[in-house]
Write a structure and sequence with these properties.
The protein has 140 residues and is α+β, with helices and mostly antiparallel strands. The protein has helices at 24-42, 46-52, 125-132; strands spanning 4-9, 55-56, 59-66, 75-85, 89-98, 101-111, 113-114, 119-120.
């Protein structure tokens, strides 16, 4: 089972006046990790997915457990794995660490969608083959 790894800097734009990450920004970072995973690993950048192919992967659920605060200047090491792979959906597990300190753990479920019909679509065999490599359990 593979794990996608990405380091993101905590910047001023992410922080509240106390100098810690304002919690909704973590959801944006989760989306960034997902977008970069699709670009770099799946080989399907959002620009092609949305504008050319008229497909999307909207989130249908998202959950985060906050373990410790991240601060301006920290670097978060994110990991992404597939918790569940369905015919048209995938649930990702996310973890973020600042050095050895766990900052958060979360999950998000996304659905492969035809943006014009707004209906779910099965993963193509090519995309499914990539996602299977990141599954931490037996796919459906």
């Amino acid at each position: 089972m593979a794990s996608f790894q990405l380091r993101l800097d905590i910047m001023f734009q992410h922080c509240d006046p106390a100098g810690i990450v304002f919690y909704p920004r973590y959801f944006e970072m989760m989306n960034n990790v997902t977008e970069i995973f699709f670009r770099d690993v799946v080989g399907w950048p959002f620009s092609q997915m949305h504008a050319t192919d008229r497909r999307g992967i909207p989130a249908v659920s998202a959950k985060l457990d906050f373990k410790s605060p991240a601060r301006l200047g920290d670097q978060l090491d994110w990991s992404l794995q597939v918790a569940r792979l369905g015919k048209s959906s995938v649930t990702f597990d996310y973890h973020a660490f600042a050095g050895p300190r766990e900052v958060l753990a979360g999950q998000a479920a996304i659905v492969h969608t035809d943006l014009d019909a707004m209906k779910s679509l099965q993963w193509t065999p090519e995309i499914r083959a990539v996602l299977v490599d990141y599954v931490n359990e037996t796919p459906d």
